[in-house]
Amino acid sequence: MLRYVTTNPGKVREAESYLGDEVARLDFDYTEVQAADLAPIAAYGAREAYRHADEPVLVDDAGLFVDGFDGFPGPYSAFVEDTLGVGAVRRLVDRELDDPRAEFRCVLAYCDGAAFDASPDPVDRDDRVAAAAAGADRDAEETDPLPVKLFEGVVRGRIVEARGDGGFGYDPVFEYDGATFAEMDPEEKNGVSHRGRALERFGEWYAER
Fold first, then answer.
1. What is the pTM of this model?
2. Which residues are catalytic?
C-alpha cells in the first residue's frame, strides 16, 4: 500500500483518481524545512515519513509562483495563506502588478527505502540529516541516504478576483483557460492541475515499480 502523506483529504481524492485503491492517506506531521525550492522540502518530508511509517510514501509540496514577484509566495505559499490569506495575495497582485501571470507548481516525492534506476525524473540522494544523526564513527552503510524520486507538475495561469466555491487554497484566484480552479469540477481540475500532472507522471512510473 502506498501512503499519501497529507492532512488534506482533497489531495487524497486527486491522488485516488490516478492511483485508485493503491493509495491511502497517512496523517503524519512531517517537518517542513525552509528552502527556496519545493524539491528539497518534499524530499525531506518523504524521508521522514518513510522512517515513521516503514512503508512506501508519497509526499507533495506545492506553491503559487507569481511572475512579477520573482516567484513569491512560492515555497512559502501555505504560510502566506495561513497568515495573510488568499485575498491579500490577490489584492497585492492587483495593486502592484500590471501582469498577473503566475503558475502553480507541485513536486511529488516518493520513498520506499530502495534505490531507483536511472530515468529522466530526478532522484534526490542528499540526506544530510541521516548522516549527521549516525555520526562519523558509525558504519558507512548506516549513513547512506535514502533516495527519493521526484516528479514535477506545472500549470500556467493568472491571478484574478476570487470566483467559484470548489477546490482549496489559492484555487479561487487562479485562472486557467478562462476558469478558476475553484469553478472547475474535481475531474476537470484534476485533468489540468499541477498536482494532476505530477500524479500522472508518477502513476505511469509507479505502475512499473
1. 0.86
2. 61
